[in-house]
Amino acid sequence: MEIVKANGVREMFDPEKLKASLLRAGATSEAIDSVVAHIMNELKEGMTTRDIYNHAYKVLSDWRKPVAQRYSLRRALMDLGPTGF
Predict the structure, then answer these.
(1) Which one, out of 35, 52, 53, 75, has a CA that is 20 to 30 A from the CA of 7?
(2) What are phi and psi of 14, to 5 degrees?
(3) Taken in order 51, 16, 62, 26, is the CA torsion positive or negative?
(4) Which segments within 1-85 are labelled E, that is strand?
(5) Whole-structure pTM over 0.70, yes or no?
(6) What is the three-class DSSP state of 32?
(7) What are residue 60's phi and psi, to 5 degrees?
(8) Cα–Cα distance, 59 to 65 (Å, whole number)
(9) How far is Cα 83 from Cα 1, in angstroms, rounded to an integer?
(10) DSSP annotation of 4
(11) Gyration radius of the chain over CA positions
(12) DSSP-based helix, strand, coil % in the chain, nearest 5
């Protein structure tokens, strides 16, 4: 299934990328499996990476709040861009 990245490029959804991102945020394997299963059920053609992030964040915050906050912090830092503003 194709998704739309933030820069507008379309690419095939790769659950391994989502798993790696959640793992870097400190999620347990159980939490990762739960989030990925939820995303796979909700995934639609043309869904944006922001939509996927929002779904993942919600499921993760229901599972473990501190991990969800770290996951959110990574997104906030990335939103600052390369210059930090």
Answers:
(1) 35
(2) -120, 105
(3) negative
(4) 2-4, 10-12, 47-48
(5) yes
(6) helix
(7) -65, -40
(8) 10
(9) 33
(10) E
(11) 13
(12) 65, 10, 25
Task: Supply 20's token pair.
Answer: 């790696």
Place of tokens 């739960």: 34
pLDDT at 6: 81
Q: Give the three-state DSSP class for 10.
A: strand
Distance CA 8, CA 18 (A): 18
Q: Which two tokens stand for residue 38?
A: 């939820």
* Partner residues linked to 47 by β-bridges: 3
The residue written with tokens 């820069």 in the block is 7
Q: pLDDT tens digits, residue range 44-76?
A: 999 998 898 888 888 877 766 666 656 555 555
Sole residue written with tokens 């989030």: 35
The length of the chain is 85
How far CA 81 is from CA of 14, 40, 48, in Å, comes to 23, 29, 19
